[in-house]
Amino acid sequence: MENDKIKQMLLDIRESNLDFTVVQSGKESKRVNGLYKPDTHEIILHNKNFKQESQLVYTAIHEYAHHLIAEEQLALNGSSYIPNAKCHTQAFWALFHELLKIAETKGYYKLDLSISPELQKLTDDIKKNYLEKNGLLMMEFGKALLQAQHLCEESNIRYEDYVDRILCLPRVSARDITRVGSVNVNPAVGFDNMKMISTIKKTDDRQAAEQQILSGESPVTVRSLMKQKAKPVDDKKTKLEKEKNRLAKTISQLQQRLEFVEESLATL
Fold it and tell me: Cα–Cα distance between 177 and 140 in angstroms, integer?
């Protein structure tokens, strides 16, 4: 696939008002399949890494997600925008998976397990005999912990000490497992997703999140949708004011630290 065609494909998946270029390096890289340069808005693809066009498309969409986030941040912060070192944030993965879904509907990309019947069979086995069974086991575990907590209270035994030194279970794990045992979540989503869904207070919202997972939405996408629903919508001014306050606090802390270091150096 030529560079111009890749660019047209990306723009068809989602428009961008910030111009960018696509470059196939003609090289193989053991470190990365591609990268995005936010200063020059270049998407570089190490095309010698790919055996199939779908692999190239996947990486191109990945780097394009970085470009779209850079565009959003530039629109919000202007020329003062500095690319974050932590670029693979939850927001990034949510956007990337959204773009992949669009690419699938437009026929640019396909995740097709049918080409490997052995993988399809193994996948069914993993879902049924590992994810679901483990989810069910952890749900029963949570109910057992709830019962243990009740019995500790009846016996005037500190439940925290029981968890720490009898079960030797981290308190955070005990909390998560107990919460999973106290709500009705389909174990077919797997224990990690059960933990996430169990934090949702409203039953209808929990069921909606559960259905999204079961229908193939990635956990990070569901988590992002949960945060968006819970988070009030801020206008541009409010966002900038919040960022200003965060920066002022950081500068103040750094100034205090600088004074401390300078005073320490003066005594040496």
Answer: 9
Q: Are 187 and 139 in contact, with CB atoms under 8 Å apart?
A: yes
Query: What is the pTM (predicted TM-score) of this model?
Result: 0.77
Q: Tell me the pLDDT of the chain (268 aa) as tens digits.
A: 999 999 999 999 999 999 999 999 999 999 999 999 998 999 999 999 999 999 999 999 999 999 999 999 888 777 666 666 568 888 899 999 999 999 999 999 999 999 999 999 999 999 999 999 999 999 999 999 999 999 999 999 999 999 999 999 999 999 999 999 999 999 999 999 999 999 999 999 999 999 999 999 999 999 887 877 666 556 678 878 888 888 898 999 999 999 889 888 988 8
Tokens of residue 212, six digits: 């999204």
Cα 166 to Cα 47, 144, 162, 171, 196, distances in angstroms: 55, 14, 5, 12, 27
* Closest by Cα among 6, 1, 111 to 63: 6
> How would you class 174 by CB atoms within 10 Å of its CB: exposed for 0-12, middle for 13-18, buried for 19 or more?
buried
Q: Degrees (nearest 5) of the Cα angle 91, 66, 205? A: 20
Do strands 34-37 and 42-45 pair parallel, antiparallel, or not at all (unpaired)? antiparallel
Task: Check: CB of residue 74 under 8 Å from CB of residue 18.
Answer: yes
- How many whole angstroms separate alpha carbon 181 and alpha carbon 69? 38
Domains of the chain by start residue, with CATH: 3-111 (3.30.2010.10), 114-230 (no CATH)
- Over residues 166-175, the pLDDT tens digits come to 999 999 999 9
